[in-house]
Write a structure and sequence with these properties.
homotetramer; mainly beta; 9-stranded mixed sheet; 3 helices; 21 strands; about 10% helix
Chain lengths: ~325, ~325, ~325, ~325
């Protein structure tokens, strides 16, 4: 049964049998919490969801001259989407089929108190920032799939290839918690993982009935660490397929594609995020691919990857991964 | 003058005018400290050094069945090499021209108390490790440029492409310090940076007259983080070109090649290593490429890379980088 | 106005004018979240609340032989108590008038996966714990105010003086979040601060109308760090006085008594918790006592205290403090 | 044998049989490294050393108006003192018999780039400090045992009780390392531990023949964390008794007095420093006092202390302790 579902997941056929649920996200129906809340739509396992997400400012900043106080909330989320049959102890699989930047302008922002190498809320220093808020606008060129950086303080611009992904992707947390959409943690959330892009499947622990999937915070491109606090922030058009894997229990989010398996650690300090991702990856290799824990550990030490997603949010996010070509055949 | 030196550095011509110094490293002449010590050879700026390094066990483990107590010291180093004209306040550039695995067998080891996700000296837990020392041997195939992982606890093997690099590369520390060859810090040292490979130039702050370059701890391949505590450990044949950049003062090691500039942070927690690398990269972009600090910070947030080298040594090492194609022309 | 309220707070007179609200906490009415929820009672600013709290196991473990699976939930909370007039931007003052251990037996527990120096959820290592759950019972002697530790593995016992305090004390979080009662953060929560004891006043930021005060997780005594994951866990009889300080905005919890002012940092890594507490204390001294920030910083460097409360919960808690005798007269 | 030595150590009799070695420290004979170096004097086990130390500025700042560039080096050290019979694997005990402030003026300094809550070398932020170097002078009153803080930016002064201790106390490191006198680590060093005061005995691992004891960096008083980067810096007159404990091997420094045993962790992040101190304390209790590791862990969770010494040096220092009254009789 599990094998069948995974097969379905990794090689979807888009058969006419697959149901497509369409949902339109607007500032009137977004949420700002990963929480147990009234679903906006119900999906069956295997259904495809066709929707859109607003950018992290609620699409409030549109053109040069617009300022951060025009933002309509932080990280508005589409959802929650209820997936039938999902129960605590299951895993929710979200295969990202297609992501398109939904507009012609991306936005980047520096805001005092937020960022990896300036005084911040959780790593404060006494020095008051001499810098004020700054906003960069990135014209989108759909034809050549780029967004253009334009320096504010000198005459320089450069094109950046787009790699659209969800900054926010996750489910309702365990234990009745409700977490702000700026937080990444065990339930996914604001992971800012470029791994949340078309072609990849994300797995989340199901903590409540229906799982309650949320999506948002589209990024056209982002550097590792999201150093200054923002990516190229954009609205997205999104097509994902949701599936319930019954009886597979995971503790932290995971990603998978045809080439690799990937685990997410979301905590502080950064080495704890990495420890979470690495231990989860050892257990995954041991459980599904049959290497002993020691052999798995050794193999990761030779070919594993550790990818720093962001170190600006309330928790830092690290993804550990290994290419499947280095693993035995799956059990 | 600086421009000329850099040009030389980045596009070496191997002209007959370049002097080649040959030095043979053996267990009889290795060092175990990055320190101010008697040089084993003197080089002029621009000279090429042709030498070899022993593996991190002093080539003591040779074949299946050999055990860790046969190791001849930890991370034996070739050197130090004195570079004429190098004085405190200068930068030493080490262009890695060629690295070849010097043997037919690589080694990996798990040793209780050392590793990223087991109880360790600096992150101890009460749980005593149930695991004993384990040793993996990796047959080297020079023809297809691979090393082969063979599981110890099941019947599985897989070929791993080789990417040879120095695990140890650095100079004498500042302030008269002498640091063990297992430590990475401001002077470089046991950085375990895959960036220390052929085609790249490493820069180090010169802290004492002559700089005093050390090399060692060859790796045929390594996963990010060097999770279980070792790479595929091998002896190397090495060819590097050293140059002094007069009057350029750097605080932490850097790497550069034709495509990218890269900065090293070596500290704990891992976010401090990343903070060091990121601030140094902002300053480098600002100083040499003319973007304002804010524009540089924003650009890194969109296209920067953060690469986790290792999180097992006494300090953790992170490399931040940006591709030159995203930067203005160098000033 | 503010002066008057503080005076009231620090030198309460128990006059007949003060209203006393009595509330009985049972397993039937406890909560497990710091969240916006239906109040169980309404208080006026200046009112005294007379209530009781269950121990962290819902009073489920009563005598030697009882096991952790008899616990009725983790950290059940009394409340929430709505304080009239409290609005976002105000500060809620909770003066702890009296705390008494409500029973004859305290409990301590080691549970694999929770603790400061064993493999834990957020700092995992591969080593599986060789230790199983252990439970220690601490007979309470009200006459000499002690609880007795009895070793499980040898014949040794020793009396420990009691210092009763709330392990959990806090308000509804900001931004609509709901946080598990095992979490300490900006809203207070599971701070495990011995500072939450009789004679001290705790201050919390008001995030929602009414503030919504929660209390629980009584401790008869605790070592710094709560190293093994529990204190001497006990039910409490509690008497506190709540007051609203209009227009005083704080970012993190604070404590105060006649001798000292104290600030709370609750985050990870531990140095970030300390940074939060220290910056908040500099700002407090600067704002209310008139020293320049630099003079305040210097003075803390000479006479400040940093107290490690716990390093086992999802965030670590540190309290920084300075005795008032070292400060100028309050402005 | 060990018992006898410890007895001697804890209850010294100052009998005429005890040899007293006198040594005068000046800027001409100080060292700036904990390292293997030529001893300045030889001591027998049990001998008393009567010496003096310079302040951390080499006594270079003497009166209001003096500036940091008048400092003669950072943390000059008296020593090294060779203790006969001390060999690797032994423990060196240093009983601090008497410490007196050697002068009439103490000094405190803020220096940009150094401190717990400002941008620093190992936790850098982009914000440039708006603050320049500041120097505070603390007149010493020997009659009432106080030093007086005088605010620089307002008219306020306050007396601070003196508690003299060594900021630097340690031995030559292992593995041939030489470490700057601003670094605390396994060998002791710049621990900034108020525990290094009269009445306490410090224990250090012996790493080289003779141990090679260094002393310096006297503090008249210091707040936890040494937040702004300095204590009340003073020269000291010191009287210590050294003893070799043959065959007792320790990994990290320890302190002991009649009331308590204390362990030192010196690393980053701060929780790793605490983990080191706590595990060492569990092992000490288990080894010398006979409680099982689990009982020791539980007992620390109830009555242990964790004391934050400093979080400004290259490593952070934490001391964990337990009062002997809570322990079984020593084995």
């Amino acid at each position: 049964m599990r094998f069948l579902l995974l097969a379905l997941l990794l090689f979807p056929s888009y058969s006419s049998a697959q149901n497509v649920v369409r949902y339109t996200t607007t500032n009137a129906n977004v949420k700002y919490l990963f929480a147990t809340a009234e679903p906006v739509a119900h999906l069956k396992s295997g259904d495809i969801l066709d929707t859109n997400t607003l950018d992290c400012f609620g699409n409030g900043l549109k053109k040069p001259g617009d300022t951060l106080d025009m933002a309509k909330g932080d990280n508005p989320l589409a959802g929650p989407f209820y997936v039938e049959g999902a129960e605590p102890g299951d895993t929710l699989a979200v295969k990202i089929l297609d992501l398109q930047v939904d507009g012609d302008m991306g936005v980047g922002v520096f805001s005092p108190g937020f960022g990896s190498i300036n005084s911040s809320k959780y790593t404060p220093v006494l020095e008051k920032s001499p810098w004020k808020e700054r906003v960069w606008f990135y014209p989108i060129n759909h034809a050549d799939n780029t967004a253009t950086f334009k320096a504010l303080d000198s005459d320089f611009s450069v094109k950046i290839p787009m790699h659209p992904f969800f900054g926010c992707l996750g489910v309702a947390p365990a234990n009745g918690e409700a977490r702000s959409s700026i937080v990444p943690a065990e339930f996914g959330g604001n992971m800012d993982s470029p791994e949340a892009s078309a072609g990849n499947t994300a797995y989340f622990p199901v903590n409540v009935k229906g799982g309650l999937l949320y999506l948002g915070d589209g990024h056209a491109a982002m550097g590792d660490g999201e150093a200054a606090g923002s990516a190229i922030e954009v609205p997205l058009k999104a097509r994902v397929q949701v599936s319930v894997i019954k009886g597979r229990r995971i503790e932290w989010p995971q990603f998978e594609n045809e080439e690799a398996i990937m685990t997410v650690g979301a905590y502080r300090p950064a080495e704890d995020a990495a420890r979470i991702a690495l231990t989860e990856l050892v257990y995954w290799i041991h459980g599904d691919y049959g290497l002993s824990e020691m052999d798995a550990y050794e193999l990761l030490s030779k070919v594993g990857k550790i990818h720093f997603n962001e170190m600006v949010d309330p928790n830092y996010v690290v993804v550990a991964s290994i290419e499947k070509k280095y693993l035995p055949k799956k059990k």
